Amino acid sequence: MHDDDEQRARQIALGVFAMVSTKWGLQVLTEVGTGRRFRELHRAVDGISYKMLTHTLRELENHGLITRFDYGTANPRVEYSRTDAGTSLVHTVHSLCEWSRSHLDRLLDAPAYRTGPQTSRGLG
């Protein structure tokens, strides 16, 4: 990979990461699956407003993670589905969740994940 390509790949990865780490990004991407209509998605994503769902769908589409198909009928009918890149990203996130489960005991022992007062081990 050329340096320019590597730099561009990093920029894309950071943009996608920022998008899916929003409150709704990953949840909407996961719910889109292989094809869902707007109202189905609104029902599936608890607590999201119409405005925020519209915004999130546009962002996911702009990042190449979903496609929007307008049937062009008199009654508006639009369906969203994940692209191959979007599906691959969902699988990658699931792998990250598996990783965290397999290392849960050690991760929970880390200072960032301890509950209660922050204390140092072995001191006083």
TrEMBL record:
Keyword Ubl conjugation in the entry? The reply is: no
Name one matching Pfam family: HxlR
Q: InterPro entries annotated for this entry?
A: HTH_HxlR, WH-like_DNA-bd_sf, WH_DNA-bd_sf
Q: Which UniProt keywords apply?
A: DNA-binding, Transcription, Transcription regulation
- The residues covered by the HTH hxlR-type domain are 9-108
Q: GO MF annotations for this entry?
A: DNA binding
PANTHER family on file: TRANSCRIPTIONAL REGULATOR, MARR FAMILY, TRANSCRIPTIONAL REGULATORY PROTEIN
Instruction: Specify the protein name.
Output: Helix-turn-helix transcriptional regulator
Q: What organism is listed for this UniProt entry?
A: Nocardia colli
